[in-house]
Design a protein that fits this description.
three-stranded antiparallel beta sheet, globular, single chain, two-stranded antiparallel sheet, 2 domains, alpha+beta
């Protein structure tokens, strides 16, 4: 069942690269977001797209040199936690979502994002 598209919107990413193509600055902007009236700087992005025709995942993972390891740990913890929530909302598979959350907790403790 397909619904008619009644509006178009854009999410924009801008990446400033150095001479070796290493990201130095990353900005993002969501046209419809009331919280982001102008481009916002970030230190990292993870973008996954599921290709309709090839039924495969395409990924773009970028981070700037200023991103510290403890920040990457927190970013990954929060991303993994969000993925488990998204998986549950999309599939309603509580058992597997709970197993994913167990790994997220383990990851958070091992990286010391969460207290042991």
């Amino acid at each position: 069942m397909s619904k008619e598209i009644t509006k178009q919107t854009q999410i924009q990413l801008q990446v400033g690269l150095d001479a070796e193509n290493v990201p130095q600055k990353i900005h993002w902007y969501a046209e419809d977001s009331p919280d982001t009236p102008k481009p916002q700087e970030c230190k990292a992005i993870l973008l996954s797209l599921f290709d309709k025709e090839h039924r495969d995942t395409l990924k773009i993972d970028l981070w700037t040199e200023e991103l510290q390891v403890n920040e990457m740990d927190k970013f990954m913890y929060q991303t993994l936690r969000g993925l488990a929530d998204t998986y549950y909302r999309a599939t309603n598979n509580q058992e597997l979502a709970n197993e994913m959350q167990k790994f997220v907790m383990y990851f958070g403790q091992k990286t010391e994002v969460l207290p042991k």
